[in-house]
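Methods — Computational structure assignment.
A single polypeptide chain was analysed. Its primary sequence is given first, followed by the predicted tertiary structure written as structure tokens.
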Amino acid sequence: MKAIPTTPTHNLQILQIYLYYRLILGAVLWLTYTSGVAASVLGKLQPDLFNFAASGYCLISFGSLFVFRAKQLTHSIKRISFLLIIDIIALLLMIHASGGIDSGLGYLLLINVAIASIFIRGQLAFAFAAMVSLFVIGDSFYLPNTHDSLTSALFSAGSLGVLIFITSISFHYLTEKIRISDIEAASQARYAEHLQRLAQHIITRMRTGIVVIDEKNRIELLNQSAMQLLGLPQENYIGHSIAEISNLETLVNTWHKNPVVGIPKQHLLRAGQEARVSFALLETEGQERTILYMEDYRSLAQHAQQLKLASLGRLTASIAHEVRNPLGAISHASQLLKESEHLHPSDSRLMEIILQHSDRVNQIIENTLVLSSRKEPKAQQIDLNRWLPRFISEYDASNASEIQLHPISEHLSAKFDPVHLTQILTNLCDNGLRFSLRQTGKAQIEIRAGISENDDTPFIEVIDNGPGVSDEMLSQIFDPFYTTDEKGSGLGLYISRELCEINQASIFFQRTPQGKSCFRINCPHHQRMI
């Protein structure tokens, strides 16, 4: 006989109740017998046999409480069958000692048959009922009876046998129904648990940040993307107030006052990290919860950038044909005129101005053409430990400069288009060296790389000794054609920001703890890059 793999909870409860029932039944029969209250019924035929069976049954029932512990989750059919056989033998001995079925003790066997039908499946349950019926009928023949009393005993035994089979069939049917229901419920519970794990995995991995808060603005759910957007370390924030981890509480309170679904709002979560935030109301179990959907503005800007570049490409192609050729003719004619022997010395300065601004316009056209012809980024896993020293070496070969590279931790890599990253750092180094030379007389800059503490993303910083950016100009430095240098085109930082956005990175200006100017590139997380 095979072991039952797992006993359902309600079966365990039935088994525990039955164990206590056996102990109470044995104690009641033995105490009733020893007190002499039912001396005319209990043990009237063989008192010693009844006393032995009742006392032994009490001891066995008491010991069974320790064998079948409440916390035990599995029980074999062998053990339960052995338990039931002991019960049947003990009851049959007491029935026989009390004069047979007419004593009324035979109906106690119905409880044992019902228990057998609950714990023993299939034909074994019916075999158990048949065995009990045969023992009852056999005991009627064994007892000393007259012809009339034998007929009456056999009729009583037969009636009890019918009841035994009815009980067995009924409880077997009900038990099978409950077992099938338990299997279906367990299957549905496993499927629901699987769906829950799957949904949790999807929510955790999805690019959209999800934050669920209750009526008191306490966090009930915060996925991985939301923690990265908010710049939070990997900790448990369930139960915290939204005000403790972000600056979103004002937006939440404003939406609560007027919960109208509208255009998602662009919000600055932290320096260099913008997100589009939208809200939704979730009503569950009589409570209202608020869902915040946060989308990384960099990925949205990437799609907008593709459309913008397509339009800009068509425009700059026309500009190249219409402006570049006349500009080249003007520049060439100015150079020839400057070399003329008949040029008055007072006009030389005017020719320098013409050539200078011709070069500036040509640089603007070239930068615009480079920007408009840019293709999809070809992101690669760049080992910054090797790539940055090589970039500095190549940059120093064509520029008289001094670039200090801070020590980089081992295994530091970033997912980026290397061509784009080269152009971004070239623009930042050019600007940093120019302003450092103007401020201190020395063309010196620093480059530092590492891992952000809040979201485990790599970063690169270009630090210079220039005057920095004032608070008034901070919102304009990345605008196209905005420059404070009369020789600049105003497109260097703009192009750098565009290249960062299409690589799902960000760039922003900040001051170092020492007060130096710093442009920081936050590279994308390796799991968020397409």
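Note: Residues 300-372 form a domain with the Helix Hairpins fold (CATH 1.10.287).
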